[in-house]
Structures are given as C-alpha cells and as structure tokens.
Design goal:
Fructose-1,6-Bisphosphatase, Chain A, domain 1, D-Maltodextrin-Binding Protein, domain 2, five-stranded mixed beta sheet, 12 strands, 3'(2'),5'-bisphosphate nucleotidase activity, magnesium, CysQ/Inositol_MonoPase
Amino acid sequence: MSDADLAAHLAEVAGKLLLTVRESGMLSLKALGKAGDATANQFLCHALREQRPDDALLSEEEKDNLDRLDASRVWIVDPVDGTREYGEAREDWAVHVGLAVDGAPVLGAVALPGADGGRGLVLRTDAPVAVPAAPERLRMVVSRTRPASEAVAVAEALGAELVPMGSAGAKTMSVILGQADIYLHSGGQYEWDSCAPAAVALAHGLHASRIDGSPLVYNQPDTYMPDLLICRKEHAARVLAEIAKL
C-alpha cells in the first residue's frame, strides 16, 4: 500500500471508529472526547508502527519520543481534531494523518467523518479535487469560540465575511471545498493540528505558510506552531501585506 493510500485509509477507518464510539450512547460529553481520542489514537499508532516500522511517529495523544528528530520521515497524526465538535455531533471535526519528510508536509489525508450528512469525506494529497472559484466578497474562516484578533483585523481590511468553524482540519478543508477562502490563525497550535491539512492544501494548489510568509516546518524539538495562513495563492500576497501592517 502506498503512503498516500495508507494515510487515507487510516484516516477514514479512524473516523468510522470515532462515530461508532459516539453512537454507542454510553458516554457523557466529557468522557466521549477522552474515549474517542484514546480509541482513534490506539488504532492509528498501532497501524502506523505495523505498516511503517522504520518511520517515526508524532501524535497528540502519545508521549513524544525525541528520537524522531533523527528521522527523515515522520508521521504526524491528530486522532480527533476538534474534540468539542466531535462530542457535539457537529460536522466540523476531523482526523489528520500526515507525513513530513525532512520537515516538509509532503503527504497526508484529512477525514471529515461527519460531512456529507454523516457519510463522511476524505481529502488526500494524491487525489486533488477542483477548488471552486472565490466569490466577490471573500470569506475568512475563524475559531467558533476565540477568533484571533489578527484574523478579525485582516478580515475587516479585506471586507471579508467571518465564518466561524471548529477544527483546524475542517477550516483548511473548507477552503478546498469552496466554503471559505482564507484561513488565518495566530492563536497557537501544534504540529499535529496542521501537518496533514497543510499537505492536503498544498497538493490542491493553495498557499500554506506561517503568517510572516515563511514555510511551515515540522518535526521540530518544540512542536508548538504559533500561526499559519492557508488561502488561495491569488490572495496570499494581499493577506500577508495586511498582516505585516498589524
């Protein structure tokens, strides 16, 4: 199985496992998030270690092994991106399975198990879909609960509409799917929040960078990533210019 097929298959199966856990009806909202994270993480990590034993692994739900810093190939996974949205049975949560090679997000898949009426959707680097054209008034996707001040300021400068949404993966995929045009985040994330989404975005011809325009670099000793920008390439220069003014 190719790396791309593996990433997509694991993301899809993990999503189905998460739906099964939620549909059991046996857990409170708080317990559901923990159980979902643990179940998906166990599956993803065991499968990746079985299928790619020579590669390193970084997961939100695993103790970090810094031996990964000596590896060229590192799988970076987020078993449930958007735990709150998952527990609330919303659509805007995701499963991330990404592969960084020498620090670059080169391959991956993002599953949206709740999308399409619960039938689910997987976007992957090796099977890009057509990105719809942007409307006249741009749309900027932001956090449902804590929109970053920089994003709000840039949206005002661009005359863009704010679109609240849950997980980072769902936000990134919304640009690909034509539900939004710009994803600007400056409130802090970790490598697992953006590795797979960034890889999928780049494979679809989108711009993906830090908010100063520098590349996104993964498999770092400190996995904290303060910010990122994902948008159509034709909007990147203007967005970066507005950020620089702040």
